[in-house]
Protein 1
Amino acid sequence: MPKAHLTPAFVANAGCEVGKKRSDWYDDTVTGFVLECRCTGGKTYYLRYPDPAGRQRQFKIGRYEDITFAAAKKRAVQLRSEAIVGGDPAAKRAEAKAIPLYGELSAMHLADAKIHQRSYSTTEMYVRRHIIPKWGKVRLTDIHSRNVSQWLGDKRAEGLAPATVEKIRVIFGRSFQLGLEWGIPGCDKNPTHGVRRTPFNNACERFLTAEEAARLREAAAASQNTQLQHIVGLLLLTGARVRELLDARWEHVDVGKRTWLIPTSKTGKPRRVPLSTAALAIIEALPRFKDCPWLVPNPDTLKPFVSIKHGWQQAIKVAKLPGLRIHDLRHSAASFMVNSGVDLFAVGKVLGHASYQSTQRYSHLANDTLLAAVEAGAAKQVAA
């Protein structure tokens, strides 16, 4: 264990002793400060010190060509001071290196979403297109709320819709939420918490009148997609989401109990949808295909439709309902129930809303019904 007074000149000329693979030159002024010289010509600065348990530890400061002697010695003094008061610089560095990059966490997030999330493709697209390019190579502990807030602000400045930016924020935050549940180091603080959310109104509901619904049914019945009329009819009568219906199986329909089981809904929980007499009539009239488990399959493939966009666009054109989205049938189903006097709680249960707040969007429809009621009462009093 040769000692030397390490100086810039000494370090520049130091080398490995003859016949050895490595020589360690210990500084005689800073205890534990070492210059390691290898027979290959490489040189590296280290600090060697006892950890709180008395074990000999080593902390790599840097290679000779990467750091000046003055900077290496200054760092050695800092690390030595930390070790003297009971710290363990090497353990601290190892702990920091154990923190995953966001790219690793996102891979775990997507693997989980593929199993449990119906909208996996959407989540994967947002992660791949927006989140990974910015944070994929960043350690989780280096991602802070301030950085995230600035990044989302930049996304808005790029022209992304407020709803899109909010979706990015939610997915990004979900990664850290899952990481915390799984005990992933660096996930104890969610960097999306505390980020100011820009208020926006993404509501774009449209409610069909009875006459418009009749026109749409007629147009769907004339579609080249022979299943479209059944799909439209059931969506209007059940308020189900289109993907829920396209993936529906015969085994989940109980005609006797007049219920349809949706095993996994958007909320992640199963729910049962009550079937009206009109809905049962459509189901009983559905074509059955041998060995096909699906309720409304594509007749050509006998598998669930990937998309019904073409038939839908043609139907709303014929029905003269431009811009109508298929999801608006869900809103319309709720509208018909509310305007028939059904209370919002019951409507929410039928639609499978996770919270009462989700059903509140239909409260103005309930007010219309109540207004009609008081007007009728007032008219009766006048007549008396």
Protein 2
Amino acid sequence: MPASTVSTEAETPLAREVADHARRRQALASAPLPLPDRTRVFTISNQKGGVGKTTTTVNLAAALALSGAKVLVIDLDPQGNASTALGVEHRSDTASVYDVIIGDSPLGDVIQASPEAGDLSCVPATIHLAGAEIELVSLVAREQRLRRALDLHLKQMEEPYDYVFIDCPPSLGLLTINAFVAANEVLIPIQCEYYALEGLSQLLKNIELIEKHLNPELNVSTILLTMYDSRTNLANQVAQDVRDHFPQQVLATIIPRSVRVSEAPSYGQSVIGYDPGSSGSLSYLEAAAEIARRGAPIIEGARR
């Protein structure tokens, strides 16, 4: 075969993609991720729906657990999609986060081990959580209930979690406020599509109010660009706009629009477990590595 033919074949898009994936896998395997010196608690939030909150929660959790971290996911969305993706039971009669917030059950009593990867656990959500917003109104310290349960559980553990991820519903009700009060850090997924920044200024104002009045430790530490399609000028423009507005918070890693990422939850898995070699899986592994290596922002008076 002529050398020119071999050269042409080696430069096909598929060959370039395979070579790129191999290079990225090698880079991920070459350096172990550092573990935090205290538990990092993230709330994954965006008032806009369909931006990849749950997908980001379960895949970052799975990626960090695969790297050797001890990880807990708290599913605070009544839809229970994070519970489904992590393969844990969440039928209506299952002990869940509802029992913790409304019934004062210890957090440890409702945690389930996920079969997904490594040392990964989940506090499931059930349909009962849909009525929790109304029930919380009359309870004492209604904004602090998740925080108190989580703090108590972490203090009782011989080896506390390295990471806790809280998956929120796409609204700013009492459930989401509980998540913000319980967290040290906020991670905001932003889709690389039209109206991506819509409502973001209001979300940031709400977070600022919660930081001022309820949780001085709260910090918007991370913004992750999701559903990126490199073939469109719009996606590139949105990505640049977000980077211009939030140069310190935006991760270098971008999550591409991927069929595999969308398929994985229907099999009760993250994309990390469903198709480890896919571009979506590699991107979430890289995002998790970036979060781990960045470390937690230093906040005075942090309790964890």
Protein 3
Amino acid sequence: MSVDGFSGGVAVTGQSSPEPRGPRLPEFPWDSLASAGELARSHPDGVVNLSVGTPVDSVPPVLREALAAGADSPGYPATHGTAELRSTAVEALRRRHGVTGLDTEAVLPTVGSKEFVAWLPTLLGVRPGDVVAIPELAYPTYEVGARLAGAEIVRLAPGQTPPAGTALVWLNSPSNPTGRVDGAATMAESVRAAREVGAVVASDECYLDLGWRTRPVSVLDRAVSGESQDGVLAVHSLSKTSNFAGYRAGFVTGDPRLVGNLLEVRKHAGMIMPRPVQEAMTAALGDDEHVRQQYERYRARRERLWSALEGAGFRIDHSEAGLYLWASGDTDAWSTVDWLARRGILVAPGTFYGPAGKQHVRVALTASDERVEAATRRLAE
């Protein structure tokens, strides 16, 4: 052995480093948007970034106050969250969405919803050879989670049923990216089909509060899942409606047996929401006024952007709910991205969400009123 300049360490010469091992993941989508972003940022009046659904408005004072009040929390927080948080979540779903019959023990806080989406197949014990079914156009992390577990991926067009061997079916209404809303009957059929092949249903409901032209329904509504929540999970996030993305706060609820199993794994793995964030989340779930105010901000921005995009020759498809407009100029998505970037407007190509998005772009409502106004002026030029 020879020492090769290490301080106190010994290196073995003549031996190559081992090849990194792990799942083969797709390219992180927004990395491929770098050149379009550079072009958009070169606009004399600055970029209008409508590519990512990240909140830009302030965290409501009532939530910041709750965070500060919980700051003196030297001990480890409970993975299961406080009893108050769980009961407040149950009450919020009843009050805001008419969901009844939930067990407060079957509520589990998550460190935002993205980490939960990415790790859910693994936490459920999905194995190589199993199938994870995702929507035809879908949030990319559904696919990433399946790959982390070594599972196969099937994209289901509307109305398609999952194949035999499917272990997990993702639902997403309102949809990211399209804003499409599935009615109760459609969702009930999806739940029935998943149960028929023995699959768990996970419904990503982080846009449930943002219905524009129709009222979205939770998978836990009795009209969807019936009298039993067996095999059904609803995933919620506070990022969009409470401007909480920086706090990383969400929760999952539904089938008590499944939630209990997830809790046990997460306790072992240390997947715990910090106690001050739990206090702020409890305040957010207990206060509907800040949700209403944020809804109105997004509604106004949506109306301005919709009108401006149509005036520039685009067609808006679906977009009945959610935080995005699903726009098409009947041309290649990347050509549209480039056309808008030359006007200082950055959007996401529909291909980020699946091959069926090749002629669409996703336009987020998450920009300040001033930036939205800048976008409408540029689209009118």
Protein 4
Amino acid sequence: MRELDLTVMARGGILLTAWALDAGVPPSSLRAALRAEGWQQLCRGAWAVPGREVDWRTRAMAIQLLTPDLVCSHRTAAAVLRIERLTAEPADSADSETLEFVHPRRSVARPGVRVHRVPGLAGRDHVVRRGLRVTTPARTVADLMRAARCREEAVVPADSALARRVIRGVRRDALVGAEGVAAELRARRPGAPAARRWLRLADPGAGSPAETVARLHLHDAGLRPESQPVLRTASGRAMRPDFYFRAAGLVVEIEGYAFHGTRHAHERDIRRYNTLAGCHGVRRILRFTATEVFGRPEEVIAAIKGALRELSGEATT
């Protein structure tokens, strides 16, 4: 058995039991070799080469090798495409999630895997990204919005896909336009009417999920700041704060989950704060963390309203 070297039969670090059996490896010898050499079982019929770090992408690739018609969808497609969702997990992480796929005929739910049956799935509905077949960005956002349990859960991925973002150090362009998502949402499917209403709340200027949630709470409170406007320093340098109440001169900055993180990031953040403070028209800056936005939004809104009242009073004295 040692002479056969199972790694030669593997593709991309993954071995299917069927490939080894088709090559003439006896079942008993195959089982013994897999155990002895430390192969890692990904799912029934698929193994990862010894020593390979097994993540959600590896598991998804194995499942697609076993069932070529499956296409990554919903949360799994979002992770592949780096579309952020209403979660503290990084946008390209799905390690703690059930892997999701669509199939034109099958509908399956088993531990760690969910397959949605979509009879009308066509070739134009999916693309290959990072070695996986995934639903297109427009289809992925539409699926997430239709399945959303609340407004925030729907608008966050829409904002993310519509915007240019830096995701875990990877800069990507906007993935789709609002019209592309709207076209996907025209189909009569469960959740589509609410998703179409929520899409009207999307803003491609949003810089993070926390900014999206903060903007929605601001709108609920009747507050309409400018999102990501261009402000100028005395030297003419352009700055883009998260939110700006121009009449009051109030800037509101929302820090993401990766707030500071390193000494360099902390120093860069302080420089940005000081530069913003020097922009023409800026009278005050409020900063809030993502934890505050998600966990204590009423306190965030109260602080902003208080600052607006104070600044308005100062302007009239």
